[in-house]
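Dear H.,

Thanks for agreeing to be a second pair of eyes. The structure we're designing against is below in token form, covering all 338 positions.
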């Protein structure tokens, strides 16, 4: 563990308050030692509480990136999930009953219990079944829960169809003259067709509350075999077939394959997909629909289009071109199965 910090090195605006601040605000004592767990949309560290001895997770976020109203909304949903038998770590409260506090610098602090256990293993069929059951129960619990924003409130993946449409349009303009331009145009020339296909099926696609980041790193299996959802700050309402699509991908070994690794470009293992879907369908409510069956490969195509669009602004031109070439067979197979 590192010593108490006053500046987050990769982004100085993040400030971890002093141990005295934590005691004043939450009544929590710690010795100033911490370990960094992550830093994407928030800075997340692990500390050891003193008396009682307990491991805690501290999440420091910028209100300009995620508002405190949004955080309260998520906390309310997490509390609701607990009443429905869905396991997710609940935030600690201040003596005034608030589930977060604000530092002198204006940043939001949330405190969660650290869930001891292990993340599900990609490619392990028993873990695939466990994850599928847990996601089905999460989706069942959220069907009638309406106090969450809709799909278009998020811009990080293809769940927001209008945002995807705009991202593709912008990427086409910015990619002109680059070595991958023709390939990218080929990948995206039918984007409107696939978006329209999802919209045409919409009445048969069940809408519910989604976690939106169901990678193994955001799930923990405890000593009793219960699966806990963590990092819940993206939750919203949307079509559950989207989350089934991406969860199958996350549980497949291809999702963590490095560039140029052959299995990166093959798509999810068909047997793993069958195991996931069979387990999900057994526990999901309302029942899985024929429209969702039709939508699953369309979601995969939109996921690939979103990925290709993301690459155009993140990698050098030759890397983008090579990736588009390597995914070509997978894209053609997807298209043939829609």
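And this is the sequence the design step returned. I haven't edited it by hand at all.
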């Amino acid at each position: 563990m590192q010593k108490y910090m006053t500046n987050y090195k990769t982004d100085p605006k993040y400030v971890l308050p002093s141990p005295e601040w934590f005691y004043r605000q939450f009544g929590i004592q710690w010795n100033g030692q911490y370990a960094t767990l992550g830093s994407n949309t928030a800075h997340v560290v692990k500390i050891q509480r003193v008396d009682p001895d307990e491991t805690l997770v501290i999440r420091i976020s910028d209100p300009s990136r995620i508002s405190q109203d949004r955080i309260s909304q998520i906390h309310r949903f997490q509390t609701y999930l607990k009443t429905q038998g869905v396991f997710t770590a609940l935030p600690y409260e201040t003596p005034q009953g608030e589930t977060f506090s604000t530092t002198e610098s204006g940043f939001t602090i949330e405190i969660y219990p650290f869930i001891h256990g292990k993340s599900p293993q990609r490619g392990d069929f028993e873990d695939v079944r466990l994850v599928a059951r847990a996601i089905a129960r999460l989706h069942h619990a959220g069907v009638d829960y309406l106090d969450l924003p809709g799909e278009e409130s998020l811009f990080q993946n293809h769940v927001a169809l209008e945002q995807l449409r705009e991202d593709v349009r912008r990427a086409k303009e910015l990619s002109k003259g680059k070595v991958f331009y023709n390939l990218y145009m080929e990948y995206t020339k039918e984007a409107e067709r696939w978006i329209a296909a999802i919209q045409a099926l919409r009445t048969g696609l069940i809408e519910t509350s989604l976690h939106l980041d169901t990678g193994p790193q955001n799930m923990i299996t405890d000593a009793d075999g219960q699966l806990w959802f963590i990092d819940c700050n993206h939750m919203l309402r949307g079509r559950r077939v989207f989350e089934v699509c991406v969860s199958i991908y996350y549980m497949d070994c291809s999702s963590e394959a490095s560039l140029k690794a052959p299995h990166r470009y093959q798509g999810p293992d068909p047997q793993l997909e069958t195991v996931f879907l069979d387990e999900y369908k057994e526990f999901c409510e309302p029942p899985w629909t024929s429209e969702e069956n039709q939508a699953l490969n369309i979601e995969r195509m939109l996921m690939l289009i979103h990925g290709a669009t993301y690459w155009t602004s993140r990698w050098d031109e030759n890397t983008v071109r090579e990736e588009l070439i390597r995914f070509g067979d997978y894209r053609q197979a997807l298209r043939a199965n829609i």
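Two observations from my side: Residues 290-314 form the longest helix (25 residues). Strands lie at 35-39, 43-49, 54-61, 101-102, 108-113, 207-210, 219-221, 227-229, 236-239.

Warmly,
E.
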